[in-house]
């Protein structure tokens, strides 16, 4: 069996999977269409698009559960308002709904991650905005919280919201909980191209590294190495433990 290397570049974080297999493999088992695969892909999208040195705004939008069928329409309208208020047309976002776990809870939280810096949210609005959360709550029509989160909190939000929605009694396979637009996909390289990327980018010199071995139903025993410019160790370890 030949050694194979799959490299997944997510901006500041690089995942390297080494394993032995005779056949060509597009995706390992944990990356395929299943809850773990979808959660893995969501986390990779967050790392690729929303983790850097900028102070990016993340919104928590609340809405009544009984109105959730209008969530996508309301979210698109809100994003158009954000484009107008910030003056940024090159807008990308990832939104994940957190459905209530408890029957008595009638509120949905939509976690909206954006590429907008907090300081530019109302840069084209006439007049002084004293309270951004109050301003955007009026536009949304319900309570809005705005935060600047470090990368480990963003990954935690994705993990918690996704898992809670899947466990919610209000979730079915037809329920849409993920909304996204204009996101850059992780860069995937194999074997010689992966080795060339590692040398060119000096990946082994990244300040944070986690190494682990796991068993995958497709790839067998896989050596997993994660190199990052930022400390995502806690949630990277959590991801590795889930797919082991």
Describe this structure in words.
The protein has 6 helices and 10 strands, in the order E-E-H-E-H-E-E-H-E-H-E-E-H-E-E-H. The protein is of the alpha+beta class and 244 residues long. The mean pLDDT is 91. The longest helix is centred in the middle third of the chain and has 17 residues, at 151-167. The strands form 2 sheets. The protein has a 5-stranded antiparallel β-sheet, with helices on both faces. Strands 6-3-5-4-7 form a 5-stranded antiparallel β-sheet, sandwiched between helices. Helix 1 packs antiparallel against helix 4 (151-167).
Structure keywords:
244 residues, 5-stranded antiparallel beta sheet, globular
Topology summary:
Elements: E1 3-10, E2 13-20, H1 35-50, E3 56-64, H2 71-86, E4 93-98, E5 107-117, H3 132-140, E6 144-147, H4 151-167, E7 178-181, E8 187-190, H5 191-201, E9 208-216, E10 220-228, H6 233-243
Antiparallel strand pairs: 1-2, 1-8, 2-10, 3-5, 3-6, 4-5, 4-7, 9-10
Uncertain stretches of 5 or more adjacent residues: none
Number of helices: 6
Portion in beta strands: 25-35%
Structural class, from secondary structure content?
alpha+beta
Main β-sheet, in a few words? 5 strands, antiparallel
Please state the CA-atom Rg, rounded to the nearest Å. Answer: 20 Å
The average pLDDT value, as a whole number, equals: 91
Gap between N and C termini: 22 Å
């Amino acid at each position: 069996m030949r050694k194979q290397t799959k490299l997944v570049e997510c901006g500041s974080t690089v995942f390297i999977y080494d394993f032995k297999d005779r056949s060509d493999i597009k995706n390992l088992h944990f990356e395929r269409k299943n809850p773990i695969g979808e959660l893995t892909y969501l986390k990779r999208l967050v790392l690729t698009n929303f983790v850097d040195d900028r102070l990016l705004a993340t919104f928590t939008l609340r809405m009544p559960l009984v109105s959730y069928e209008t969530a996508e329409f309301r979210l698109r309208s809100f994003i158009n308002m954000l484009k107008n208020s910030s003056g940024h047309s090159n807008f990308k976002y990832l939104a994940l709904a957190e459905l209530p776990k408890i029957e008595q809870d009638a509120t949905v939280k939509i976690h909206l991650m954006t590429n907008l810096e907090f300081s530019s949210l109302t840069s084209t609005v006439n007049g002084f905005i004293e309270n951004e959360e109050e301003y955007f709550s009026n536009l949304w029509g319900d309570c809005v919280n705005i935060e600047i989160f470090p990368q480990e909190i963003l990954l935690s939000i994705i993990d918690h919201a996704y898992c809670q929605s899947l466990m919610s009694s209000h979730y079915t396979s037809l329920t849409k909980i993920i909304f996204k637009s204009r996101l850059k996909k992780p860069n995937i390289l194999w074997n010689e191209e992966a080795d060339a990327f590692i040398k060119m980018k000096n990946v082994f010199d990244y300040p944070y590294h986690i190494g682990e071995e796991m068993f995958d139903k497709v790839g067998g025993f896989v050596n997993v190495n994660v190199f990052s410019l930022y400390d995502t160790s806690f949630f990277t370890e959590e991801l590795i433990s889930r797919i082991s």
